[in-house]
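Run: sequence + heme C -> complex structure.
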Amino acid sequence: MGAARGLLAALLAGLTGASATVVVLANTPNPSKGDKELGEYLSSMCVGCHQLSGRASGGIPAIVAWPDEQFVAVIQSYKDGTRDNETMRTISHRLSQEEIEALAAFFGGLPPPKTP
Ligand code: HEC
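>> structure
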């Protein structure tokens, strides 16, 4: 019966781990509605220019650790022409609302760079 008991213990440990994750997510001050995994996938379009480290480089601004609404609003403003930038206009036009929210969730969840 030792094996069964070990399995039960492992199951219980797994369950406790899972519920702990839920609690952590529920307590996050900036809950994202976007799909982070989709955002991570889509971020391959962005990271050729924008650094995942959150550092600005070569005239490319940092885009990590922003609140979701702000990120979404900025991408929208490139889309509707309120902000005029050739590169970002082209890119934003390719993104659906769901994809923008996913990117907001992914980039927003990245830590800002530590100031040296
Ligand atoms: C070819 C390079 C390039 C790529 C690829 C690119 N960007 Fe940008 N992005 C820029 C530049 C340059 C700016 C600054 C534009 C401006 O002055 O308004 C910018 C600005 C931004 C801003 C506003 C930053 C601020 O501080 O106001 C956001 C948000 C952003 N990009 C998100 C993205 C996302 C999300 C992707 C991928 C889907 C992406 N970018 C892909 C070059 C790029």
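>> summary
Residues 17-24 have pLDDT under 50 and may be disordered. The chain has two domains: 1-31, 33-116.
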